[in-house]
Amino acid sequence: MRLRAWFAALALVVSGALIAAPANAAASAAACTRSLSGSSAPIEGQAASARPVVLVHGWTGAPMTGTATALKQKLGSAINTFTFDYSTWSSDWASNANIAPCLASYVHSVSDAYAKVGGDGRVILVAHSMGGIAIRYASSSAYVVNPITAAQAPLVVTLDTPYLGSPWSGSQITPDLKEALGAVFQGRSTPNPFGTDGGACLHEHQQTTPLPSQCQGLPPYLADGTTLDELAGDITVDRTFLGVDLYSVNLNSDGIVTTTSSTGYRDSGPDNVAPVVSGNQGTTVHAQPVPCTVTTGQLKSFANTVGGVLTSLVNPITDATDAEAFRELNGGHFLPVVAAYDVAALGAASCSHINIPVSADAISQVATDITTYLQAHPTTGSGAGHQYSAQITGFTPAADRTGTWHQESWDKKSTADDSSTVGIATYADNELTIPYTVHHSGDAGLSGVTRGTSSACVEVQASGVTFAEVPMAASPPVIGGPWPYPDNYSGSITVAAFIPGIYTLVWSCADVASWSPEPVPVGTLAGTSIADPVHDEMYANWIWYVMSVDYTSSTTTVSVAAISGNGVVTPEAGDTWYLYQWSSPDAPSNLVATATAKVAKTKGQSNTLFGEAGQIYYLTVTFPVATHGLHFYDDEGEFFSEWVQLP
Amino acid sequence: VVCGLAAVTVAGCTHGATPAPATPPPAPPLGAARATALSSELSAGSPAALASALAIPDGVAVNPSAAAQIAAEAPIEFDLSTFHQTGATTATVAGHVAHPPAGTGSTWTFKLQYVSGTWKIVDAEPA
User: Fold this and answer.
1) Taking CB atoms and an 8 Å limit, are A246 and B55 in contact across chains?
2) B121 contacts in chain A (CB < 8 Å)
3) Could you tell me the CA-to-CA distances from B97 to B40, B71, B72, B76, B110 in Å, in that order?
4) Cβ-based contacts of B61 with chain A (< 8 Å)
5) Band of residue A200 on the pLDDT scale cut at 50, 70, 90
6) What single string gives the DSSP state of each residue in B6-34?
7) Residue among B62, B70, B90 whose CB faces A247 most closely
8) More confident residue, A535 or A445
9) pLDDT band at B34 (very low <50, low <70, confident <90, very high)
């Protein structure tokens, strides 16, 4: 955020004269209608082997050419940098029609250009300050006609993005501080941009406190499947005396944005959405501090260089104001004495808000983030070298499971007094285990009849997908209990679960009295799994998941989990699989290779309830080509599954 | 006109006015005894002695090696003839540092604050 119009914008904030037009309070999807000529040409330097990195500047900023140069120096030909420019509108709020929609349009252009030279179309986004907010609006169909997708931009790195606003956008800023801040930014300023919505919308806020009306609501979360790395400048001032470090003052800030705000993505979601604690909206979030230290001697030196009011503000820092500053910092307050530290550190500290885009430590961290991504998704062209895998990062049992047994009636079936309960589910090694009991009323006519679990009775659903026959195993029921309740069945159902989502259990026995199925929540799996259930076309009792794909320059290895239903043929070692060049879901063509499947391992067990159902077969198939597109056949030529498009 | 805010200057509004805050009496000049004590405390090399010489905010953790490092720069002798009171409780005085930090001269200006009846050092800058 190069606050090029800081002085003017802040004056409006302080005076309370927020004159920004309050139009467009409600979000509406917009398309970019302006020229993108200020940004780097999307085709410039594109090569399949160079991952595009799009840099997005912040409020009152300008294209991040310095960051681009520094990253290129670090990463060389592994990346190709592109700078997005919205400087003419950079004091407007990030949702502005000239910012978010145009950012989305620009990212699409870069992505398309990359795909045309043989790349996979994926780009990395690196944003400074409000640029990170712009990416969020640009990723939402509520604000942008053609939003950025997670598949297109799977990694976002933000530098000091004020997810929870900035205290400098508040009314406590004194005229002296305004003047000092203006002096710090002197020489960095460009002509006063249009509008001042950005200043108002960067006001410090919480998720429960909406932004001013012209801001169009709190920014939406990033698209599902995105990885976000939040980098937070964190300045510590070393108090020196006769050149000796006496003690340290941690500002918990980059001088403009507090570290709480720059790492506050999880708690900065849109209106009426609860704060997220992990795996937010399918987004993986990493917060990383970028600490730096500046001495009081350096603060004074900087202040004396700038001169004017900054000198008079900074010099007392090491006199009698330390004690007051400590009190206010510890109390989380932002009073002038704290602001004096901030404003001086802005210019003198390497990780400050205005310096972090070219800070050596920050650049190293961004480069590390990008390198980590490139190692997992290398760009050697034509798909070779890519690796994808299913990743479930955690399981949260249903929130209302507070006791050993869930007291909610599960089935409400059969005779009037029957009931069932569902226990607290657990998840391990790709399996969801759900304890249950089925309790009979003990009527004479049905006593002793097993009506507990059966493969025909149980459905597990996740995120709108029904896995009607996925139970892979059930422990034998334990029959017991004194008369008149002779039939208590206890056991557990184990379900293969490879994809993120909210899992529910539904009882659907066809042979019982009429009743309405009542889904019981089991829990939520979080992660960024590529596994996508593909129901068998001919054998509905099979579900296939592509668990991982590993490309080399000459092979494509696909790992598949196949989950059996009841009474169907099983995949076996020696089955022949067929790999087709992907063209479209309806146009299988161009057989490129065949390969023999290997069964890596088999899980699950046969039992009286499920027969052969519920077995999981982990197969690997290695084709002697590097390509995309997979079509399943067995060696008898029977059609097994839908098309599966490999990532 | 709100009398409480303008009582001192607006005729007729003195009744019920807020009294002006009491101005603390001027601190006495830095004496030879306190100057000698400051020199000793800075030279002692102990955290306790350093804390007696410097005005350090409550609750901060002082670098454990600071006292020894400052002592290594000692002795520090203050020139009382340069004592200059800059406010009711603030002043400056020049001092000669025997072993100053690299790149700096031996004469420094020390900023003082009168705290709890005694002068303490709050900062120092090369003269």
Assistant:
1) no
2) 241
3) 13, 10, 10, 5, 11
4) 247
5) confident
6) HTTTSTT--TTPPPPPPPPPPPPPPPHHH
7) B62
8) A535
9) very high
- Residue B6: both structure tokens together: 């303008």
Tokens of A375: 């190692």
Alpha-carbon gap, residue A618 to A601, rounded angstroms: 5
**Which chain A residues in 383-402 lie under 8 Å from chain B, judged by CB atoms?**
none
Query: How many other β-carbons are positioned within 10 Å of the β-carbon of residue A129?
Result: 34
End-to-end CA distance of chain A: 36
Q: Which residue has better confidence, A137 or A536?
A: A137
| DSSP letter (8 states) at residue A358 | G
CB contact under 8 A, B62 and A244: no
Say how far apart CA A336 and CA A528 lie, in whole Å: 45
Cβ under 8 Å to A: B residues 45-74: 54-63, 66, 69-70, 73
Question: Is the model's pLDDT at A27 over the cut of 90?
Answer: no
For residue A484, cis peptide bond before it (omega within 30 degrees of 0):
yes
Nearest by CB to residue A244, choosing from B55, B69, B90, is B69
Q: Which of A318, A320, A326 sits opposite B59 (nearest CB)?
A: A326
Q: Which tokens go with A31?
A: 């398309």
Contact at CB, A246 and B62, closer than 8 angstroms = yes
Residue with the larger pLDDT of the pair B67 and A201: B67
For tokens 């540092």, name the residue. Answer: B97
pLDDT at A546 over 80: no
Confidence of residue A439 (pLDDT cuts 50, 70, 90): low
A287 within 8 A of A263, measured Cβ to Cβ? yes
Q: A244, B55: Cβ pair inside 8 Å?
A: no
Q: What is the pLDDT of residue A608?
A: 34
Q: Residue A381: what pLDDT? A: 44
Core vs surface per residue B72-110: b (16+ CB within 10 A) or e = ebbebebeeeebebeeebbbbbbbebeebbeeeeeebeb
